[in-house]
Amino acid sequence: MANKGQSDLNEVKLALLDKISSLDTDTVKFASDMIEATDPETIYATRSKEAQNIGPYLATNDGKVVLVGDAAHAMSGAYGQNPNFALEGAAELATCIRNNGSIESALQKYSSMRVGRCFEMQKRSAERAAKAMKGGKDLEDVSAWIHKWDIEKNE
């Protein structure tokens, strides 16, 4: 008889097999066979990066911690834009510090400006990853969206 931990791992394996069988790609059979042959105790399951919540603030009230880069906007690597978006966040934080009279107001401005863009990127990233998993061919090139952004205007 399986113990509670083993039962949970079997459920993870069954859920994974159920999810992957719903995808319509050439690699599903291979992946499904590999998962089927895998001992449930060796399957590592974790939440996707897109499942992590963002905001509503990217800085602590005391200003001692500020989230920038993947800490502020974890997203799928499907776009290949993680470093660009992290540098954009750092540049925005630097601009807010330069343009505001105090660290407190700079961090408030940074949070208010950055959270919306992070939500949008996370949404686009998750959508693209889901399409790619289903074998989608016409995937959005997010680099145009990232590179047209004006840091001074936040648009």
Can you give a write-up of this model?
By secondary structure, the protein is mainly alpha-helical. Helix content is about 55%, strand content about 0%. It has six helices and no strands. The chain has helices at about 5-20, 30-35, 70-75, 80-100, 105-135, 140-145. It starts with a helix and ends in an 8-residue tail after the last helix. The mean pLDDT is about 75.
Topology record:
Layout: H1 4-21, H2 28-36, H3 70-73, H4 82-99, H5 103-133, H6 142-147
Helix pairs in contact: 1-2, 4-5
What's a quick, concise take on this entry?
This protein is 55% helix and 0% strand.
Helix vs. strand class: mainly alpha
Task: Enumerate the spans where pLDDT stays under 50 for 5 or more consecutive residues.
Answer: none
- Nearest-integer average pLDDT: 75
- Bin the strand percentage: under 5%
Question: What is the succession of H and E elements?
Answer: HHHHHH
Helix content: 55-70%
What Rg is obtained from the alpha carbons, in whole angstroms? Answer: 20 Å
Secondary structure: number of strands: 0
Which of globular, elongated, flat, extended, rod-shaped describes the shape? Answer: elongated
- How would you sum up the major sheet? none
Total DSSP helices: 6
Distance separating the two termini: 59 Å
